[in-house]
Amino acid sequence: MRMLAENGIATPDDLAQVVPPAARLARGPVAIAECFQNIPCDPCYHSCKQGAIKEFTDINQRPQIDFDKCNGCGTCMSRCPGLAIFVVDAAYGEQEALVKLPYEFHPLPAVGDVVTAVNRAGQAVGEARVVRVQNAQAQDRTAIIWLAVAKDLMMEVRHCKVKGVG
Q: Which positions fall inside the 4Fe-4S ferredoxin-type domain (predicted)?
């Protein structure tokens, strides 16, 4: 397996450091910060009204989420310049989970569209149904797409491709 530094794709060991415990995932929406580099960046901390993103002692450290405080609102997602924060809701349905992801492409998918669900490596892993599209001016051109996906894909799906485009 190639490493994150070589190909930009998080390894299972990388992900184990940032994924909430299964019991927390089962309780409802929660943010996951897949930010794996120490860089000078902290907009996620300043945007979190719940206090769920722990205060940085050094602006170069990676965000740490207090999963018990996080309500999965997703405010931090559109503030992350690296598009590295996602919200997963395993309690969304019996067969489906909800994945909220940042999206900065055109055209935006529409509610009800069936899109191709894509993993961290850019590979298609299945289909997803667009449940909601948030694109308010306050989000500064970073839309948040809500995707209903098969539960077994909720930790894999990190992007989507509008069918018939590109």
A: 61-90
